[in-house]
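Page 47, continued from p. 46.
Same chain as before, 348 aa.
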Amino acid sequence: MPIPSRRGVLFGGAAVAAGALATACTGNDPADDAPAAQSAAGGGDNEKPGRAVTIGFSAPAADHGWIAAITKNAQAQAKRYSDVTFRAVEPTNDINQQISAVESLISAKVNALVLLPNDGQQLNQVARKAMDAGIPVVNLDRIFPDKLSYRTWIGGDNYGMGVAAGHYVGRRLKEKGVAKPVIVEIQGIATLPLTQERSKGFADALKTHGFSVTAKQDAKFTVETGNQVAANLLQAHKKIDALWNHDDDQGVGVLAAIKQAGRKEFFMVGGAGSANAMREIKAGGLLEATVTYSPSMAASAVKVARLVAQGRGMTDLVELQAPQSITLASETVTRQNVDSYLPIGFES
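Result:
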């Protein structure tokens, strides 16, 4: 998983209906088969073409399934609009190269900029430069510390991911009648705020069921490390009742280690919502659920950037302008609803 920090107004929860963004910010061309377009619906006047705009886009290199899906979702959504020219710069994991790339978009005078920074702190200044130049920035996922550096932030809910996973684990253990469960947690990178938020949400939710985490270790968001960490935890705990893995990409390695060890006495919950994880869930194996942190947020970012650049708001909201921040809800995918989520799952 990437290195974001998530903040904002809950969108898709109590205050705003879950489909508001998709309904309000629709495309005007027929839907294609891209994952980003699966849930698009009619949205009043916003469905009609508006003023032609150019949207610049910059993101890290696609060396991770979730990051690759971010770019694909953004590209697919932009293609839906006859009034949008999508100008993406070369993806890179080098901070200085991304700064230079964003500066090139500023020089090109794009009408809006969708930016997923490698590091929000280090790209804060160039994002502020864009805003000062009159180019609204839609800050995707990894937040800039200076609110003057972005017009709208949109991303997922890390704390909510932990809460969703914790409640699923707690309820399942109660159903199974387990009194003193061994609960194992495999994190991404332990020092990151996003990981700490996920772990806190997990612990808080478990506490409401009378449970706590027995052991946790970080796996660096890689398949290889996920495999190594899972193997170590399996060796250290001869009996496990439940396991939560923060990231479905590293989960490929976690599942491989579990299968290699021949362990079947526990159930597992994943994180992020990869198609690979969803197929495992559908097959009815050890992986019972995953909690979403969907890269479809990139498609929503393009939708918002288009509206902001055209001076339009979301037709399902009373306010005339798009919100300043949008936090997407973390949803729980199980065997019962997996078919509904598979179309927007990303490939690990």
